[in-house]
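Write out this protein's structure.
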Amino acid sequence: MTSSFRLHRIPRRPLAAAQALTIGNFDGVHLGHQQLLAAMGETRLPRVVLTFEPLPREFFQGAESPVRLSSLREKTQALLHYGADQVICSRFDRRLAQLSAEDFVREILVGRLQVRHLFVGHDFRFGAQRRGDFTLLEQMGRQLGFTVAEQPPFLLDGQRVSSTGVRQFLEQGDLGQAARWLGRPYAICGRVRRGDQLGRELGFPTANLPLTRRSLPLRGIFAGRLHSPIGSWQAAISIGLRPTVNGKHLVLEAHCLDADSPNLYGLQVQVELLHKLRDEEKYPNLDVLIAAIQHDVGQVRQFFASSSTSQSPWITKTP
C-alpha cells in the first residue's frame, strides 16, 4: 500500500535505467487498468506510468468533456497502490498536442523515459491528430530497441470494463456495479475544511470537503465510510449544493456515526460511497431538514446492519 503522495514530472535528463512503461488517462484506475499494471510486473523492471494533466479530452473539449472519476491525487494513489513504482505527469498543452507520434516516441519515450518494454491498451492512439497506433509503436520499437505489448480489453460478465461504464453506473446511482468494475468502492479524497457549522447546530456535525474545483459523476445522500489518519467511521454522506440553505457551491459533507466529534480539520481523508439512499432535496424549513437527516442516519445504520462490506480502506490513509 502507498504511504505518501508521490508524483513526478518528465525528467529533463534521461532516467538512469530502463523502464517498463505504460501511457494513458487511467481515469478511475478500474480493473482493466489494474490488469495492465499486473502484466507490467512480469518484466521485473520498474513500472512507470505516464499520464497527463489536463487530460487530453479536457484540453480539446473543455467544458464539454466527460466528468472525471478521479482527481490527479486520487489517480496517483490508486496507481501506486496497484503496483506502479512511479507516476509521471506531463502537462498536456498545445506543444504536446502538436508533437508528431514519431517525435513523441523518440524524444519522450526513448530519449527521456528510457522505455524498454511498453504496454498500451487495445485502443491506444497518440501523437498529433492521434496518428500513432500499435503498428507504429512496433515499427519504432524494432528500430529503437524496445518491445510493445497490447493489452486486450478486460471483460466482466461479457462487458468491456471502461471508465465510461463506471461513470454511467455512478450517474445512475449504482454504486455496487461501479465498485465491481473498479475492484473497490468508489471513493473521494480531500482535505477537511471548516464550514459554516450548520450541521453542528442541527445536531449532526459533519466533515466538509469543498468541491469547488472539481465536478463529480454523482450527487445525493449516501451510506459510506470516512477514513482518516486518526480513525475510520461509518457515515451518512451528502454531496450537493445544500439547496435548503441556498448553497451555491458543491460540497461533500460526512456525518460520522457513533463518533465523539473527531477533530478532522486540515486532515486528508478518504470518503467511500457504498450505497445511494436518495437524491438531494430542498426542504421548506430547517425542522423538516432535521427530520430528513434523522431518517437518513437511520437508513445508514440499517444498511450497515445488513451489509458485509469490509471495514478497511483500500489505500493507506495519508496526513
